[in-house]
Write a structure and sequence with these properties.
Number of helices: 8
Shape: globular
Oligomer: single chain
Structural class: mainly alpha
Low-confidence stretches: 1-62
Helix content: 40-55%
Radius of gyration: 17 Å
Order of helices and strands: EEEEHHHHHHHH
Largest sheet: 2 strands, antiparallel
């Protein structure tokens, strides 16, 4: 897939012992932490993580976030196309049908983009909305283009830290949700479940998982990367 220009991998630094949930606090039902400069929102796995500045210690992960998001969102758009005629089908996301999930995913991408651009934006709604229109595929393709363009600008990924990496994980997991809900091939593209697992695994305490994921599912030690990713996020393959 051609994104448009070569993008160097970036180092995502996590303070030693830090959990993603520690980056956020709850206010009026919305989880946000303005002290890091960029809001954090968690709903299912829809999240925008604040930038971490001047971290001198801890875990360092080198990834090409733009490439990962591009590949995952390309795969997910294909699942959107396959789900467009089944908008009332139930999904693995409790109480949400496909239409609700698509709306949530669109809201999340638009929020990522607006936040990265420094614009005020409403966080994704914790309840289903009517964000998705009559042509979900066109809307998702446009949202994907906007996200790649915004985060592809010089300095944006450095400024927003692991945000796009979390957006990538969100796209991948919700793409699987769509596939599972509508009887499509659930196999994630090679290398993507490994990357998503590396990004999110162990970043939440058990208490912080509440409202973000269902309880973790036990899997065998020799489970595939996709099985481990799904299990960590409370999904069963």
């Amino acid at each position: 897939m051609e994104i448009g220009r070569p993008v160097a991998a970036t180092e995502v630094r996590w303070p030693e012992g830090l959990h993603l949930g520690e980056l956020v606090s709850e206010h009026d039902g919305e989880i946000t932490q303005p002290s890091f400069g960029m809001p954090a929102v968690f709903g299912g796995m829809s999240s925008l993580v604040p930038t971490l500045h001047d971290v001198d210690r801890g875990y360092v992960m080198t990834i090409d976030q733009l490439d990962l998001f591009g590949r995952a969102s390309e795969w997910t758009v294909g699942k959107v196309a396959g789900a467009a005629a089944q908008l009332d089908a139930e999904t693995p996301c409790d109480a949400w049908v496909v239409r609700d999930l698509l709306s949530h995913m669109l809201e999340t991408q638009r929020y990522f983009v607006a936040s990265a651009q420094g614009r005020e934006a409403s966080p994704p709604s914790p309840t289903p909305t009517t964000a998705v229109g009559d042509d979900p595929v066109a809307e998702f393709e446009q949202a994907r283009t906007n996200t790649l363009h915004t985060f592809g600008q010089a300095g944006v990924i450095d400024k927003t830290g692991p945000s796009l990496g979390i957006a990538f994980s969100d796209q991948l997991l919700h793409g699987w949700d769509l596939a599972r809900a509508t009887g499509q091939d659930e196999t994630m593209p090679a290398g993507l479940p490994e990357a998503a697992y590396e990004i999110i695994h162990g970043r939440f305490t058990d208490e912080q998982r509440k409202g973000v994921f269902k309880p973790e599912v036990a899997v065998a030690a020799d489970a595939s990367a996709q099985e481990k990713l799904l299990a960590y996020t409370g999904r069963t393959s």
